[in-house]
Design brief:
The structure holds 3 protein chains of 3 kinds. Chain A is of the alpha/beta class. Helix content of chain A is 19%, strand content 29%. Chain A has a 7-stranded mixed beta sheet with strand order 11-10-9-8-12-13-16, with helices on both faces. In chain A, helix 3 (164-172) links the parallel strand 9 and strand 10 (177-182). In chain B, helix 9 (248-254) runs antiparallel to helix 12. Chain C has helices at 5-10, 19-26, 109-118, 120-145; strands spanning 29-34, 39-41, 49-55, 57-64, 68-76, 80-81, 95-98, 102-108. A 4-stranded antiparallel beta sheet of chain C has the order 1-8-3-6. Chain C starts with a helix and ends in an 8-residue tail after the last helix. The chains are: A alpha/beta, B alpha+beta, C alpha+beta. At the A-B interface, strand 1 of A face strand 6, strand 7, strand 13, strand 14 and strand 15 of B.
């Protein structure tokens, strides 16, 4: 089956570039990973961990999806997507050789450089592990630059655990600690049961200096930042990844505003002290 | 030499105004200006100076707009109506690109920029400031809305200094008028004195000078200049509303939980009129459409409003589900967060949101109420020592 | 606050408390009232009080985007609201929202912590009572999580 050809050299930031699908893989019941060849004419597709693309399914629509792959391997552009509507459903149906429109990368990134010399704690809830995975890859690629590395990951049930094989591989390493917990267990589950914040008191890291990256549903991030503060971590040591409705991703359409910030360009990743005052207001 | 010419003021007789139109249309401009339609003064294509609303004025108040006949034939004797110039610089619906998918190929082609030049006749000072405000939104150092920029660069602006203030105007409070001071090619002040009907004209740019050169004009004398100043100061003294902007950003940042928001929410219909008539509101959405066969797709950009439920929708629901949250978003964006985002207020004091709100919500009053409430005791605790 | 003494003495939470301890507690007590819709405390704020509810209803909730304010528990007459004042770093985890006109007695947590440091017997009496409150709430929360009514678990 011959690959679709795509035309190149379109320049406007609102115009997607079509990329070929390399493969798709079902991760959990409602989440899948899709790998794309980088856009022709834009190789390598350089991005920083935490950034996102706007992905366009022909005729269906466009959605913001964090890049979940390894920035050190630019040969493929990886996104992990939860199927929640028409566009993500259309994406799920794509096969090798099909095309998907890409605009990006957009947004701020995880402070991987800034974490050098410090303990790094990564707290992920649910699909929040996907936007954090590129940060973890970057850190592990230069492992000796960092202090202790801790991953705390919580999901609702064992069936919702993403990247199981990789998690097992990380756990087997001697130079990082991996804690996985679920809210609700099934009989066969032998691991921890409890909300992800319960890992924080047990994890070993220096709260005075650690850099913490948190991603998950907003309520989870709020409880996590509180628990971290309870353990002596300052709000200027915590980074969160926020989510808002996005249409343009370049700061014109107004949809993604969170107080005075535009999540598409000032975020999605923020140092917590910089948005706390707005983030904690209901329905802001 | 040019700056001296730019400092001079000229006289254009009312009967020669048509010649100004002629010069502009000969140069290929589409002429747009005020005209009466459907009981309001709107901005529309003008085929001649006769299309202007001669002898009309408007009466505006909260939730009220009426046209009334004047007892003279002034061409600009009214204030601003439901339209603003964003309708032309940032059109309500524009196509961004088209894509076609054939046997084994996918091709996409962007929309070419608009090449039609536009001349705006009768731009009020508040609207000049509004255009400047939108310039800061759409033309940023790192990213530019190129179709907005193209239209903007091709637009010739004939401003008009207001001779009277509207019932909902507060440009004086916002430092945006009534006198046009920048951002125009020509600025006119209309004077009616007994039998005489003329305009005192200022050129703001070389392009403006070039146009006035081609139209019969004389130099303005001191009496005429004074007449123009009198007209403008009369307008300045008649403002229908007033907004205290002292420390307004921090005032609103401190008051996200003020009970006043519940009060406004009980009145607000979230009809989005305010965002449609506001000359600075810039929110838009993207519509991806496809043909039935699925082989042709287009992306359109369309005006949007933060008052809709969809606006802040993410999986699971809208971030701002309540009317209170949506009204608060609009007002705090317009008056406070806009300052952090773009360096100026988003409000130019034109009063349209007050006039066109079906329930007459007045943001100057809302700011006043919030300011006043800061003197009162905090919510919640009432200690009753001795109460059982 | 002398007039509060009989009320405190009769409140189920302080039943069987010795006179001298009641005396210490009364000194940290005040009468408070919240109108329907008022917030008593919010997630993240410093926790320096607890409340004995005399009438009305308070809901303990967390705001979740798209779902609105999710109530995890309600407290009403005779019940106790708040134990974060007991445990460092003394910060509220949830929002507490009066859903009806609510009258309560507010106990000053800082005041009681200080008195407990000086009088360990008082501290023990308070902790015993709070341990029961926490245990009851924890068991209830676990039962809620069990999702007992679910047909297809």
């Amino acid at each position: 089956m011959p690959e679709e050809t795509v035309s190149v050299a379109v320049s406007g930031p609102m115009t997607p570039v079509f990329c070929h699908v390399l493969r798709t893989r079902q991760e959990t019941r409602d989440t899948f990973t899709i790998e794309l060849e980088p856009p022709p004419g834009v190789r390598p597709f350089a991005y920083a961990p935490g950034q996102f693309n706007m992905l366009y399914a022909f005729g269906a629509g466009e959605v913001p999806i964090s890049i979940s792959g390894d920035p050190g391997r630019p040969q493929s552009l990886v996104h992990t997507v939860r199927e929640v509507g028409a566009v993500t459903r259309a994406m799920r149906a794509l096969k090798r050789g099909d095309v998907l429109g890409v605009r990006g990368p957009f947004g701020s990134s995880w402070p991987v450089e800034e974490a050098a010399g410090r303990d790094v704690v990564i707290v992920a809830g649910g699909i929040g592990l996907a936007p954090l995975r590129p940060a973890l890859y970057s850190i592990l690629a230069n492992r000796d630059r960092y202090g202790r590395v801790v991953l705390a990951y919580g999901t609702r049930t064992p069936d919702d655990i993403l990247f199981r094989k990789e998690l097992e591989g990380w756990r087997a390493r001697l130079d990082m600690s991996v804690h996985v917990t679920v809210d609700r267990a099934v009989a066969s589950w032998r691991g921890s049961v409890g909300f992800v914040t319960t890992i924080i008191p047990r994890a070993r890291f220096d709260p005075r200096d650690a850099l913490v990256m948190v991603c998950g549903p907003e309520a989870m991030m709020q409880f996590t930042t509180l628990e971290l503060q309870n353990r002596g971590v300052g709000i200027d040591q915590i980074y969160v990844s926020t989510e808002r409705n996005m249409k343009c991703a370049i700061g014109f359409c107004g949809h993604c505003q969170l107080g005075p910030t535009f999540v598409c360009k000032d975020g999605p990743i923020f140092r917590y002290d910089q948005i706390q005052r707005f983030f904690e207001i209901r329905e802001i | 030499m040019t700056s001296e010419l730019l400092d001079q003021e000229y006289i254009l007789e009312r009967n020669d105004l048509q010649k100004l139109f002629d010069v502009l249309s000969k140069s290929g401009y589409r002429i747009i200006g005020p005209s009466v339609r459907d009981g309001a003064i709107v901005y529309d294509d003008l085929s001649s100076a006769d299309d202007l609303p001669a002898g009309w004025t408007d009466e505006q108040d909260g939730g009220t707009y009426r046209l009334k006949k004047r007892n003279d034939q002034a061409l600009f004797g009214y204030n601003v109506g439901p339209h603003s110039w964003k309708k032309f610089l940032f059109p309500p619906r524009t196509r961004l690109w088209q894509a076609d998918r054939g046997a084994g190929t996918t091709e996409i082609s962007e929309e070419s920029p608009d090449t039609q030049k536009m001349a705006f006749i009768g731009v009020r000072s508040c609207d000049l400031h509004a255009i400047a405000v939108q310039d800061r939104v759409f033309i940023q150092p790192n990213v530019v809305n190129t179709s907005y920029q193209a239209r903007r660069q091709q637009t010739f602006i004939v401003a008009v200094n207001c001779g009277q203030a509207g019932g909902t105007c507060f440009c004086v409070s916002m430092n945006t008028g009534p006198k046009a001071t920048a951002g125009f090619d020509l600025a006119l002040t209309e004077i009616l004195e007994g039998e005489r009907h003329y305009f005192v004209v200022e050129a703001g740019t070389e392009a403006g000078l070039a146009v006035i050169e081609q139209v019969p004009h004389t130099s303005a004398g001191p009496a005429e200049k004074t007449a123009a100043e009198t007209v403008v100061s009369a307008a300045a003294s008649q403002m229908g509303r007033q907004m205290d902007t002292t420390d307004i950003k921090d005032l609103l940042y401190r008051n996200y939980r003020n009970p006043r928001w519940e009060n406004v929410a009980s009145r607000c219909l979230t009809c989005a009129n305010c965002t449609l008539v506001c000359p600075t509101c810039f929110c838009s959405t993207v519509e991806d459409v496809t043909s039935l066969k699925g082989d042709h797709a287009e992306r359109w950009q369309r005006w949007d409003s933060c008052f809709t439920m969809d606006f802040s929708y993410i999986h699971g629901g809208s971030v701002r589900a309540s009317a209170k949250a949506r009204y608060r978003q609009w007002m705090t964006h317009k008056l406070a967060t806009w300052i952090d985002q773009f360096g100026t207020s988003g409000c130019v004091g034109c009063g349209r949101c007050i006039t066109w709100c079906p329930v007459a919500i007045d943001l100057t009053e809302e700011v006043r109420a919030i300011r006043e409430s800061e003197g009162l005791p905090a919510e919640g605790r009432e200690d009753h020592h001795g109460d059982t | 606050m002398e007039t509060l003494r009989p009320i405190l003495a009769q409140h189920p939470f302080f039943r069987d408390l010795e006179e001298r301890h009641l005396e210490l507690i009364v000194g940290c007590a005040s009468n408070v009232r919240f109108n329907a819709g008022d917030f008593i405390f919010r997630h993240g704020e410093e926790a320096n009080e607890f409340y004995l509810i005399r009438e009305g209803m308070v809901s303990l909730e967390m705001f979740v985007t798209g779902r609105g304010a999710v109530k995890v528990q309600t407290m009403s007459e005779g019940e106790v609201l708040g134990w974060s004042w007991l445990v460092p770093p003394y910060r509220w985890m949830f929002d507490a929202h009066a859903t009806e006109l609510t009258r309560a007695i507010a106990l000053d947590g800082k005041c009681l912590r200080n008195k407990s440091e000086q009088d360990h017997d008082l501290g023990y009496q308070l902790l015993k009572r709070f341990a029961t409150v926490v245990q009851e709430n924890l068991d209830a929360a676990r039962l809620q999580i069990l999702n007992i009514y679910e047909v297809n678990a």
